[in-house]
């Protein structure tokens, strides 16, 4: 029994039943599952919003799914979900509510934190963002010299970068093509250098995105950006107001930096960094795509929020996807999860999901403060198809590891392209369908022999198959569909954290590296004697100084 009154997860009867079921299923073959149930292909599907979800190519039976749902019931996933939507402080280690769902709530919704309805403030900020975005887009907002803004540079890191940077790529065809929008995150000066080297400072707006406004990378880059701008314009501090806006929860630090808080767009401590791009953190994106498209995206998020909140367990897609991940991670020893979008526009999608999933569920301590003795979050990875096919798919097909994968594709190519380029879409999608088929069903030795392959090569050319995949298919990649996809993964991650009994909304693991970096820096710059450096790091620091001629 846990301190919180819960039975240890892996001692619950539901967990034990799943472990037993896993043994009984043994090496169940997808070929057999499909042969014995001709309705499986059409039957193992669900719909949420515009997303068609096919989970037929998973190593599961009806019984597996029933047992997984029982585990979810035993761990009260829906109870925690309801507490989250109600605004309870389910982020217990930081004593915070978890209310990214309030960011896309309708104007008339009532969601209270500490007795205060947060929805009006959400819409006030959205309206301010919309007003500002329109002024930039129309040219009404001008820089210090009176020129209109043509370049927007978002400076932020982690959740203050990955979301808007990803969404900007995804929705490129919806952006104002006359605007240059760039994202700077890395404290490596090369990032800012490359971002501004060909820009006219007089036409450039910096959007400084930082929830805390204390993150060293962002504040360092923002300071360098300010110095670059003032140097280029040969202007004083008064130019900052026209070229810098801030997205933050920390008005004091924003003012300290020299940005007028009238040019600050606020959000709140109940929005986690990695859950924040639909808050003020999305301002650069909103400038690029316009407020209407941004609101369409929020509607997409809301569609999946409502589904997650209300759909019964059997039809609840985030619940299903979360439980499938648990099936592989905890009962098949899978260590990673691939997300493979068949859309070039989703090139940064998996990088975004890495933070969402790995910063949320990369934890070995449970909510009760005890170490878990079950696997938690997987390594999430992947790049857009078909590029991956010519790189690492070999290992997925014929390697020794089980790698469950999500395949995400769209029926329609992006409308903006020429007819010739649109025609390439069928080839892209032929690969999409062929890959999940090959992964699931492989090729038997007899089939290989039937192709006339010499006996000594038969083993090499055999594909065992049985590699599980989820197919997510939508008609078109719109702002709404992007919102739906993100909310789907947010809630999937939530489900897994709830079952594993971990706090998916803190990130203490990031802190140690930050503290140590601060300590090491004087050793690099001044050769200062730093207490507590281990022998390896000390030698490396000395080598670095030698290489730099210090
Ligand atoms: O990397 C740790 C982290 O705290 C992330 O969770 C967060 O998204 C990122 O730093 C940036 O933080 P901030 O928005 O406060 O600059």
From TrEMBL:
InterPro entries: G6P_Isomerase (IPR001672), G6P_Isomerase_C (IPR023096), Phosphoglucose_isomerase_CS (IPR018189), SIS_dom_sf (IPR046348), SIS_PGI_1 (IPR035476), SIS_PGI_2 (IPR035482). Gene3D superfamilies: 1.10.1390.10, Glucose-6-phosphate isomerase like protein, domain 1 (3.40.50.10490). One of its GO terms (molecular function) is glucose-6-phosphate isomerase activity. It is an enzyme of class 5 (isomerase). One of its GO terms (biological process) is glycolytic process. Signal peptide: none annotated. Pfam families: PGI. It catalyses: alpha-D-glucose 6-phosphate = beta-D-fructose 6-phosphate. Its main location: cytoplasm. PROSITE patterns: P_GLUCOSE_ISOMERASE_2, P_GLUCOSE_ISOMERASE_3. It is found in: Cytoplasm. The active site is at residues 359, 390, 514. Its EC number is 5.3.1.9. It comes from the Bacteria. Keywords: Cytoplasm, Gluconeogenesis, Glycolysis, Isomerase. One of its GO terms (cellular component) is cytosol. Pathway: Carbohydrate degradation; glycolysis; D-glyceraldehyde 3-phosphate and glycerone phosphate from D-glucose: step 2/4; Carbohydrate biosynthesis; gluconeogenesis. Belongs to the GPI family. Catalyzes the reversible isomerization of glucose-6-phosphate to fructose-6-phosphate. This is Glucose-6-phosphate isomerase.
């Amino acid at each position: 029994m846990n301190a919180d009154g819960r039975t240890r997860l892996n001692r619950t009867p539901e967990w034990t039943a799943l472990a037993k079921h896993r043994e009984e299923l043994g090496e169940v073959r997808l070929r057999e599952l499909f042969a014995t149930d001709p309705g499986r292909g059409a039957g193992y599907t669900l719909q949420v919003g515009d997303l068609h979800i096919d989970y037929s190519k998973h190593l599961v039976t009806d019984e597996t799914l029933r047992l997984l749902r029982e585990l979810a019931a035993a761990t009260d996933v829906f109870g925690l979900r309801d507490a989250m939507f109600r605004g309870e402080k389910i982020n217990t280690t930081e004593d915070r509510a978890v209310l990214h769902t309030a960011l896309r709530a309708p104007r008339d919704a009532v969601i209270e934190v500490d007795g205060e309805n947060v929805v009006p403030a959400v819409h006030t900020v959205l309206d301010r963002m919309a007003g500002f975005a329109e002024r930039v887009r129309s040219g009404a907002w001008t820089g210090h010299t009176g020129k209109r803004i043509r370049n927007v540079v978002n400076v932020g890191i982690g959740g203050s970068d990955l979301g808007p940077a990803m969404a900007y790529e995804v929705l490129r065809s919806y952006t104002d093509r006359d605007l240059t929008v760039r994202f700077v995150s890395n404290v490596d000066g090369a990032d800012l250098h490359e971002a501004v080297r060909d820009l006219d400072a007089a036409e450039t707006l910096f959007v400084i995105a930082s929830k805390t406004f204390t993150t060293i990378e962002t504040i360092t880059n923002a300071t360098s950006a300010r110095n670059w701008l003032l140097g280029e314009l040969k202007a004083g501090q008064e130019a900052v107001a026209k070229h810098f806006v801030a997205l933050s929860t920390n008005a004091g630090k924003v003012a300290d930096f020299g940005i007028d808080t009238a040019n600050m767009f606020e959000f709140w401590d109940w929005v986690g960094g990695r859950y924040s791009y639909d808050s003020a953190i999305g301002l650069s994106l909103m400038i690029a795509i316009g407020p209407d498209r941004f609101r369409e995206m929020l509607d997409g998020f809301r569609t999946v929020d409502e589904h997650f909140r209300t759909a019964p367990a059997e039809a609840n897609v985030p619940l299903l996807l979360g439980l499938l991940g648990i099936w592989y991670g905890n009962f098949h020893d899978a260590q990673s999860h691939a997300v493979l979008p068949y859309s070039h526009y989703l090139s940064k999608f998996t990088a975004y999901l890495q933070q969402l999933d790995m910063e949320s569920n990369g934890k070995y301590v449970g909510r009760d403060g005890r170490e878990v003795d079950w696997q938690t979050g997987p390594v999430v990875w992947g790049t857009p198809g078909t590029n991956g096919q010519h790189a690492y798919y070999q290992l997925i097909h014929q390697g020794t590891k089980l790698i469950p994968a999500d395949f995400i594709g769209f029926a329609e190519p992006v409308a903006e392209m020429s007819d010739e380029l649109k025609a390439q879409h069928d080839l892209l999608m032929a690969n999409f369908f062929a890959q999940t088929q090959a992964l699931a069903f492989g090729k038997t030795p007899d089939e290989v022999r039937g192709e006339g392959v010499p006996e000594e090569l038969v083993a090499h050319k055999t594909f065992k198959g049985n590699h599980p995949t989820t197919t997510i298919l939508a008609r078109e990649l719109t702002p709404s569909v992007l919102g739906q996809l993100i909310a789907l993964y947010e809630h999937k991650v939530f489900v897994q954290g709830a079952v594993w009994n971990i706090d998916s909304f803190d990130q203490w693991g990031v802190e140690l590296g930050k503290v140590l970096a601060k300590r090491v820096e004087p050793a690099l710059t001044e050769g200062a004697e730093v207490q507590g450096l281990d022998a390896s790091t000390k030698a490396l620091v000395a080598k670095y100084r030698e290489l730099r001629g210090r």
